[in-house]
Amino acid sequence: MPHIYNDFTIEIATTDFESTRNAVAGGADRIELCANLGEGGTTQSYGVIKTCREKFEVPIYPIIRVRGGDFLYTDDEFECMLADAVNCKHLDCDGVVIGFLKANGTIDMDRTARIVEAVYPLGVTFHRAFDRCKDPLEALEQIIQTGCERILTSGQELTAIAGAPLIRQLNEQAAGRIIIMPGSGVRADNVKTLAASTGCTQFHSSLREMIPSKMKFNTPAFANDAESIGHSGIDPMAVAAFKKALN
To answer: What is the pairing mode between strands 150-153 and 123-126?
Structure first.
């Protein structure tokens, strides 16, 4: 049975060890650990997952995604992701984040269920592949059948605020059988409104910002290069503000 949360829960999408450390310091209740968040998130390295698991006590859910782009995968790609999911189980992660579609826009229930079974008793979140499915209300029932505990969704819109009406409908239809977690464009200044309009209690955000580089030397040709100036990261105070906005 899915775990039902009575209080607000904030999940922060992090992209490396440093951003995970900062998210935890800011009060994140759960971590979705990714690489390449600019591509929607792909699976982080063994070393990052292992070290985060060893250093932090909060629940850690690595994303299981072999590449950016769509959510229609070859058999070989799926075998890679199955192996990554099992690896997360061996590393004592708390769950994984997945999403599989068929070419016709329906949920790939077989592959989803295979991951759920392979990592049991870990939790499984179905990510925003859900927002690309053909019939979200039917997909909700299918995902429940596979044994996932949570769906991350923006209500099939670019942001969760725009998709709030569908998110509310999904949450009402779910009726506690699965957790509906809004994500995409969720920030401290809108999360309380989103909670009120959807009835949801778990919220997902990346809270990404540019962290300036501490390098004191830079080759002149790369003086204005984005990678030389800084990198994407998380400010613990932004996480704390996000949590305070809810609680």
So the answer is: parallel
Host domain of residue 130: 9-246
The length of the chain is 247
Interval 41-92: pLDDT, tens:
999 999 999 999 999 999 999 999 999 999 999 999 999 999 999 999 999 9
Does residue 3 lie in a domain region?
no
By DSSP bridging, strand 230-233 and strand 209-212 are antiparallel
In total, how many domains does the chain have? 1
Domain CATH number, residue 241:
3.20.20.380
Virtual torsion, Cα 128, 4, 176, 96, nearest 10 deg: 30
